[in-house]
Amino acid sequence: MDGLTEMLKGTLEGCVLEIIGNEETYGYAITRRLNELGFTDVIEGTVYTILLRLEKNGLVQVTKRPSEVGPPRKFYALNDAGRQELATFWAKWDYLSSRINQLREGGR
Amino acid sequence: MDGLTEMLKGTLEGCVLEIIGNEETYGYAITRRLNELGFTDVIEGTVYTILLRLEKNGLVQVTKRPSEVGPPRKFYALNDAGRQELATFWAKWDYLSSRINQLREGGR
DNA sequence: AGTGGTACTCGGTACTACTTAGTACCAAGA
DNA sequence: TCTTGGTACTAAGTAGTACCGAGTACCACT
Fold first, then answer.
1. In terms of Cα–Cα distance, which of A26, A7, A13 is closest to A86?
2. A23 touching chain B per CB within 8 A
3. Interatomic CA distance for residues A66 and A69, integer angstroms
4. If we measure between CA atoms, which residue out of B98, B95, B76, B97 comes closest to residue B18?
């Protein structure tokens, strides 16, 4: 499915937060995970910009660790602010999706 | 609920298409309808920019009619391209929301 | 030495919702 | 008459986010 770019705005960051919240992980793996989840067009550059933003906004704790198969990895874990942000994200998502579905069914 | 701005990107236009698809209507009324549907922070300026974009992209048929309580209104109705675009929007929405919910439940 | 997979950074672009200011019509009250 | 408030649209500019492109760099295998 392509042409999702605009619709992803505001939600992709939340998806990344959710993934990080499940398990401490790093950019390259997050991209792969998103791809296998059906976000097939999301590429690495996009994920890295989100990760840098999360770091800048103080929502994650970052740990650099060596890799056995390539350059060192930056592992990300949610801190308290990040968990709070994730909860807010889901609240917003629930709100939005319920309104949208209401609009769809409320034939006029 | 505030702070929905980013999340609305890509979906608000679809909502406007849906509203127009239900009934020929005009900008001011669309804004009111969105507000009562729960999109409380959406303001007129935003709706008008969407309507101008829809018109520019050839998705609507526009008819100007006098109003009894103010300046003339521009009524919008979907044409074939608009109905097609609306169907595409819902397909994208279904796809995205199913992936997001899958991510949410797929704890791991 | 070269290729391919892994891993991150950074400058710039495109698109969309929002902001702000402006124009303009009409009715009712001071 | 003037003002206020509700109705109705336009247009220029801002901010935020996903995407693009190029670059750097590590490692294993051939």
1. A13
2. yes
3. 9
4. B76
pLDDT of residue B107: 59
Distance B35 CA to C13 C1' (A): 33
Provide the token pair at B61. Answer: 């048929």
Q: What band does A106 get if pLDDT is binned at 50, 70 and 90?
A: confident
Which of B60, B3, B50, B57 shows the shortest CA–CA distance to B27? Answer: B50
pTM over 0.85: yes
- Structure-token match 């608000």, residue found: B12
CA distance B5 to chain A (A): 8
The order of strands in the sheet holding B25-26 is B25-26, B73-78, B60-65
pLDDT (tens digit per residue) in A29-81: 999 999 999 999 999 999 999 999 999 999 999 999 999 898 999 999 999 99
In the DSSP assignment, the letter for residue A25 is: E
The two three-digit tokens of residue B42, written as one number: 């959406």
Which of A4, A6, A102 lies at the smallest CB-CB distance from B37? Answer: A102
